[in-house]
C-alpha cells in the first residue's frame, strides 16, 4: 500500500498539545496519530488507525493460534445479568448507566463475564463441549473519574477480553496457562517489555490473578520485585509476619503523660527521654488511622487501621482489600466522642470495644508484640501495651505501605519498587459467575457440575500508547517493525523532477513487493521539515532520495539505531526489503 | 484456516427461535451465526463473525480503492457539537443520551457529521488540502422504538460512514459520484441486488440524496420504479401536478344537506343521487385529515392535510416532509370547536382561517380545481368549492399515498411499487454542517470559503442480514463465495477411520493452499445430521468423504445449484480449488 503524504489526512505539529501529560500522548498527537475528541475519548487518524489495527492483528493471531474462538457482543447491555452477579451495584460510579426510551436500565459494559457465561449456558450442556476459550476485541467503557495520560486511561477504549470454560480445576489451570503463554508471545511481538506480577482480584472475584505490567516511569501501578524473581503488584504483596511472642514476663502496660506529642517523631523523642534505655523508634509505636468505608450501596462506615508508626497507610493497598467498598477520609470526630483525635488507642476499638468501630491491624501486630499507642485521653499515651493480652482486633489487613528493602514474602530477598502500567490481566475466576448465573454441564457420570472459568484481558488501545511510551527518543517515535504504520518512509527532497521520479519508482517497487510505503511526495516542503517529520513519525526504515541521486546513490537510515548508509539506487529496493524482512 | 466442527463454538438448532420474524434471522440463529443478547442487540458467534468481517473487508477495500482514508471516532460523545447543529434536540427519543459521573451530557452517536466536520476544521485550512474523503467502520446506536427483523433494525449495529469535504460544488459532485460508484462495486461484490432511488434528506439536511435499496419482501421501505428507469423511495416521489384551471365560468359553491354520509363512499353515492349527471367519484371529494405535529422541543400543533378523497395520508411520506417533527393522531376536537368532525371544510382552515390551524394541501389541489368537501356543519357538505377562489391554504405537501399506476414524475411511465431495505445512503449535505460549525478554508484568492460536504453510509451488519435474506432456500443459507465464513465444507461420514483420515488430509491440503475449510469431524454424528447442518450452514462448496471412498471417490456439491459430482479422491483438492477460484 502506498501512503502519499501529499494527500494523507495528516498534520504534524511542532509544539506539544497543552493537554498532553505524557510523552506517548505528546508524540502521538504531534505525529498526527490521534486527536482528542471527548474527555477520555480519542479519534484515531489514518496513521494511528494503522498502528491500532496492527496491534489488533497480532492479538488476534495469537488468540487464534492458541485455539480461542472470536465472537463479538454488544457493548450496550441490559441491567439484569449484571444485577444477578451484583456487579451492577459493585461498579458504583465507574460504569456508564443509561435508560432506553421505555425507561429500561442499560449499561455500557466494562467487561463481559456475565454475557459470556450466559452464552455458553445457552449453547452448551456437556463436559464433552469443554474446554472452551472464546474472545472478542471490543470497545469498552468506564466512567473514569480522572481520564489521563492520553490513551492509557480513557473512558472509551479497546480491549481483547477472553473467557475460558472448564469442567474442573485442572482444566482451568491449563486454560489459564495457555492464555498466559499467548500473552507472553503477544508482548514479545509487540516489542513491549513486561513483568508478570501476582495481583489481587478486586471486584472480579476469583482465586488466582496475575498482571502483565510494562515498566514505565509514567505508570500508575507500583510493583515490587526481588533478586530471587518474586514480582507482585504492590496491592498483592503480603507482609512477612514476625513470630508471636509469649505473654509471660512481659511488662504491664502503663499510661504516661506525653504532652506536646502531636506526631510520631515527637512521641518517640519524649518516650526515649522518659525511658533512656528503651531505644524506641517509630516502629515501636502503634498508629491508629481512621478512615470512612463507603460501601457500594452508599452506606458509610468508620474503620480504624492499626499499623506500626513508621509506615503510612497505602490507600491503593487498603482499597484492594476492602473492594468493592471505597475509602474516604474520616472527619466526623464529633459523632464519635470515644475517638480522641491524636491519642486513639486500641483499648476502645473493635466491634466489641466501647467505640464500637471495626478495627483491623497490620500483620506485624502479632500476639505478644508491645506498643506505645494512644491512651484515648488528650496528652497521654500507653506504653508496653501487648497485642492479644491488652487489646484485640477484628481482623488483619494488608494496608501498610510496602518499602524498598522489605523482605519478599517467598524469602527471595529484599524488594525493589518500580512503576509500571497494567497491560494485561489473567484471572482464575473459579465458579463465582457460573454459580451466580447457574452455568452447569453434565459430567462423565451424568451429574450436573458447575463450570469453572477464567477471564483474560489485554488492552489494545493501551498497547499502542505503551509502545509509543517505550519506543521513542527526543526526536520522535520509533515504531517496532511489527506494528509500524508503514514499513518504510521514502523521502524525496529538493525540486528536481528526477528525484521525485526515482523516489516514486522505488516506492512503487516496494509496494509491489508487498510493503506499505509512506512516501513524502510533498512538492513545496523543505528537506529539513521532511526529515523532522520522518523522525517524528518514526517508521523503522527511512530512505532519502535527494542530492545523492546525481551520483546514483540514496540514503538508508535505521530509525532506531540512527545508522545511515549510502547505497546505489539500483540496490535500493533489495536493501530495504532485506532490512524490513530482517 | 481449519475450522473443526468438533471444537467449533457452534450449536445448530432444528427449530426456529420464537422471536425470529424473518427468514434471515431464523436461519442465522438456527445456523449458530448470531444470538440475541439484548433488545435490538446481537452477539456474533464465530461463523457469524467471519461473515461480518468478510463484509467489512469488502467495504474497506473498496473505500480504500476510491482513495478514502480510514479513521476511527469514539461512539460516546459530548453533547456540545450536536447542540451546535441542532441535532441533539432533533433526534428526539431516537438516540441514547446519558450523563457521566459529573452530570455532563453525552450521547451514543447515531452518525458523526459533527465530529468529522470539527476534525477537518482542526487539521485543515486551505483549498489545497481538499478534496478529502475520510471514513470509519464503527458501532452505531439508535434507540429504536421497535427493534425488529433481527439484524435489519437493531439498536446497536455497525456502519461504514464516510464524509467528503470539497471547496466547491463541482468537487462535491465528484466526491458524491465516487462514493456512489464505490457503493455499486461493494454491492456487486457482496452479491446484493440493489436499486438506487431518489430519497428525501430528512434530518440530515442537504440537497441531493439517494438510497441503495435491496428489493426484499420483508423490507420496511416502499419504493417505486417506472418502465423508463425512474426509481425513488416512496417518500421522495413527487406528484405530477395537473394544470390550473381559470376561474371564469365555474359554478358557484353551494351547500347541500348530506345526512348519513360518514364515509367518502356514502358521500359519493349521495352526491351522484343528488346530481345524476355529475359522475362524481371519490377523487371529486376533498378529505381534510387532522393530525398532531409533535415538534422536537415537545410543542404540539394541530395540522390539517387536504387531499383527494380517493387517497389516504401516507404517514411515512408526511413524516419525511415535516421531519424533524413527528406525527401523532389528533383527538382533541373538544379544544377546537371549529373542527366539525366528519364535516371539516377548508373555509375555516389555514393560519388566517377561523380555526387558526395550519392547512397544507395535496399538489393535486390546484387553483381552479372543484371539490365536494365538508361545510363545517354536521350533516352538510359544500359542492363546487373552487380552490384558490373559495378557499386558500398555507402550503402544499406530498403526503398522499403513492399508488401503482401513478405516473412517474419524469414522464417515464406508470409506477410500480416494491418493497426494499435501505442498505446505503449517499447525501450531498451542502454547507449545513460546515456553516453550523464554521468549517472554512482559504481559496485560491486567499478568501475564506465555507466547505461543502457529503455524507455516505453503508450498513455493515445489515448487509449480513440482507445477504442471508436474499441467499437462502428452504434448506438453509447459500452464501456467496466472497463472504462465506469458509470456502468449503468437508464432511466426513460414517465410522471408518480411513474416511476421517482422507477427509482431514484433503482439508489440510486445502488449508495449505490458502482456503478456509469448515471440517465436520464430529465422530458420533449421523450422516443425515451432518448433511442437514451443511445445508443449513451454507458454504458454497460441500465435499462429502464417505462410502464412496472405498471406490476412490468423493462427492463435490455446489450449494447454490445443487449440482453433485463424484470425483476421484486424488483430484479432490484441485477440483475444489478450481470451484473456489472460479
TrEMBL record, chains A, B:
CDD domains, per this entry? ProRS_anticodon_short, ProRS_core_prok
Q: Which reaction does it catalyse?
A: tRNA(Pro) + L-proline + ATP = L-prolyl-tRNA(Pro) + AMP + diphosphate
UniProt keyword DNA-binding present: no
Which segments constitute the Aminoacyl-transfer RNA synthetases class-II family profile domain?
Answer: 35-480
What Pfam families does the record tag this protein with?
HGTP_anticodon, tRNA-synt_2b, tRNA_edit
InterPro entries, sorted:
aa-tRNA-synt_IIb, aa-tRNA-synth_II, aa-tRNA-synth_II/BPL/LPL, Anticodon-bd, Anticodon-bd_dom_sf, Pro-tRNA-ligase_IIa, Pro-tRNA-synth_IIa_bac-type, Pro-tRNA-Synthase_IIa_type1
Query: Which family does the record assign?
Result: Belongs to the class-II aminoacyl-tRNA synthetase family. ProS type 1 subfamily.
Protein name, entry field: Proline--tRNA ligase
Question: Which gene is annotated as encoding this protein in its UniProt record?
Answer: proS
Amino acid at each position: 500500500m502506498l501512503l502519499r503524504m501529499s494527500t494523507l489526512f495528516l498534520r504534524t505539529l511542532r509544539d506539544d498539545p497543552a493537554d498532553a501529560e505524557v510523552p506517548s500522548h505528546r508524540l502521538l498527537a504531534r505525529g498526527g496519530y490521534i486527536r482528542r475528541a471527548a474527555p477520555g475519548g480519542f479519534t484515531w487518524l489514518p496513521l494511528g488507525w494503522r498502528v491500532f489495527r496492527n496491534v489488533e492483528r497480532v492479538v488476534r493471531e495469537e488468540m487464534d493460534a492458541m485455539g480461542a474462538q472470536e465472537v463479538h457482543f454488544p457493548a450496550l447491555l441490559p441491567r439484569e445479568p449484571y444485577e444477578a452477579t451484583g456487579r451492577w451495584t459493585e461498579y458504583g460510579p465507574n460504569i456508564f448507566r443509561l435508560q432506553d426510551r421505555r425507561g429500561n436500565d442499560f449499561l455500557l459494559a466494562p467487561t463481559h463475564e456475565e454475557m459470556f457465561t450466559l452464552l455458553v449456558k445457552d449453547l452448551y450442556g456437556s463436559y464433552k463441549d469443554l474446554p472452551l476459550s472464546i474472545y472478542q476485541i471490543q470497545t469498552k467503557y468506564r466512567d473514569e473519574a480522572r481520564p489521563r495520560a492520553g490513551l492509557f486511561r480513557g473512558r472509551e477504549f479497546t480491549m481483547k477480553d477472553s473467557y475460558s470454560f472448564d469442567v474442573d480445576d485442572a482444566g482451568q489451570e491449563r486454560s489459564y496457562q495457555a492464555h498466559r503463554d499467548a500473552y507472553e508471545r503477544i508482548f514479545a511481538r509487540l516489542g513491549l517489555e513486561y513483568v508478570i506480577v501476582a495481583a489481587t482480584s478486586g471486584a472480579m472475584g476469583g482465586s488466582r490473578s496475575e498482571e502483565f505490567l510494562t515498566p514505565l516511569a509514567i505508570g500508575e501501578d507500583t510493583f515490587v520485585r526481588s533478586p530471587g524473581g518474586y514480582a507482585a503488584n504492590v496491592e498483592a504483596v503480603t507482609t512477612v509476619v514476625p513470630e508471636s511472642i509469649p505473654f509471660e514476663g512481659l511488662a504491664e502496660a502503663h499510661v504516661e503523660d506525653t504532652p506536646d506529642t502531636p506526631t510520631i517523631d515527637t512521641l518517640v523523642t519524649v518516650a526515649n527521654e522518659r525511658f533512656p534505655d528503651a531505644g524506641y523508634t517509630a516502629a515501636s509505636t502503634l498508629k491508629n488511622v481512621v478512615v470512612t468505608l463507603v460501601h457500594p450501596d452508599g452506606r458509610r462506615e468508620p474503620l480504624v487501621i492499626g499499623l506500626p508508626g513508621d509506615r503510612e497507610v497505602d490507600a491503593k493497598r487498603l482499597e484492594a482489600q476492602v473492594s468493592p467498598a471505597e475509602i474516604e477520609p474520616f472527619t466526623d470526630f464529633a459523632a464519635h466522642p470515644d475517638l480522641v483525635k491524636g491519642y486513639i488507642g486500641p483499648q476502645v476499638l473493635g466491634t466489641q470495644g466501647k467505640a464500637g468501630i471495626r478495627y483491623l491491624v497490620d500483620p506485624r501486630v502479632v500476639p505478644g508484640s508491645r506498643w506505645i499507642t494512644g491512651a484515648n485521653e488528650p496528652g497521654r499515651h500507653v506504653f508496653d501495651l501487648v497485642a492479644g493480652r491488652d487489646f484485640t482486633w477484628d481482623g488483619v489487613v494488608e494496608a501498610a505501605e510496602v518499602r524498598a528493602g522489605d523482605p519478599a514474602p517467598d524469602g527471595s530477598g529484599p524488594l525493589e519498587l518500580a512503576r509500571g502500567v497494567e497491560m494485561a490481566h489473567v484471572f482464575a475466576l473459579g465458579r463465582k459467575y457460573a454459580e451466580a448465573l447457574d452455568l452447569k454441564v453434565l459430567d462423565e457420570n451424568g451429574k450436573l457440575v458447575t463450570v469453572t472459568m477464567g477471564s483474560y484481558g489485554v488492552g489494545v488501545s493501551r498497547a499502542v500508547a505503551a509502545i509509543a511510551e517505550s519506543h521513542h527518543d527526543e526526536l520522535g517515535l520509533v515504531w517496532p517493525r511489527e506494528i509500524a504504520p508503514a514499513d518504510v518512509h521514502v523521502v524525496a527532497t529538493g525540486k528536481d523532477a528526477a528525484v521525485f521520479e526515482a523516489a516514486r519508482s522505488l516506492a512503487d517497487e516496494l509496494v509491489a513487493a508487498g510493503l506499505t510505503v509512506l512516501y513524502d511526495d510533498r512538492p513545496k516542503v523543505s528537506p529539513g521539515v521532511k526529515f523532522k517529520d520522518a523522525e517524528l513519525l518514526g517508521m523503522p526504515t527511512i530512505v532519502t532520495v535527494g542530492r545523492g541521486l546525481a551520483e546514483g546513490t540514496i540514503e538508508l537510515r535505521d530509525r532506531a539505531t540512527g545508522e545511515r548508509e549510502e547505497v546505489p539506487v539500483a540496490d535500493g529496493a533489495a536493501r530495504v526489503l532485506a532490512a524490513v524482512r530482517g
